[in-house]
């Protein structure tokens, strides 16, 4: 989307070297791993699942700031922190952690598709965030996470729906309370940084051209 906007306005967007993004990715994985491990260990429901999974809000925000770097950091952070370091088998951790990937990936795709601004300045932006960054993404993560834990033999079928419900409720509360605060107050500064890979508003030259064409038609 950023490239499309650049082409429309004949602008070139300079990007930092790939090594900088790899360093950012490594840092995010470390932070997500440590956060996931801490909250899963300190507030356990079942193995790998926390009753206070605060790190999920940061995973969502990082995805909206850093694009797919943030999404994959959420995945590998879950594999390491909530999975391997929390005692889950490696094979289970690899497919179970897709839950955290979905929780970060769904809002990123929705914001790009609906041209929503992560600063959440309008009702449109806020509705996109609430639907795709709080409800649907966490519902998808809870369903995937609970079922794969059962498939992997980590929880019993009797624990399935309690795990799913607890996962969903905890994450929507955390995501709905913390992520909007970070997006509203920190995103304006983050957009000024070269590392920002998130959604940007359509450029004014494109908006003027689009509006003019609609008037003519």
From TrEMBL:
<feature type="transmembrane region" description="Helical">
    <location>
        <begin position="52"/>
        <end position="82"/>
    </location>
</feature>
<feature type="transmembrane region" description="Helical">
    <location>
        <begin position="126"/>
        <end position="147"/>
    </location>
</feature>
<protein>
    <submittedName>
        <fullName>MASE1 domain-containing protein</fullName>
    </submittedName>
</protein>
<feature type="transmembrane region" description="Helical">
    <location>
        <begin position="20"/>
        <end position="40"/>
    </location>
</feature>
<keyword id="KW-1133">Transmembrane helix</keyword>
<feature type="transmembrane region" description="Helical">
    <location>
        <begin position="94"/>
        <end position="114"/>
    </location>
</feature>
<keyword id="KW-0812">Transmembrane</keyword>
<keyword id="KW-0472">Membrane</keyword>
<feature type="transmembrane region" description="Helical">
    <location>
        <begin position="167"/>
        <end position="186"/>
    </location>
</feature>
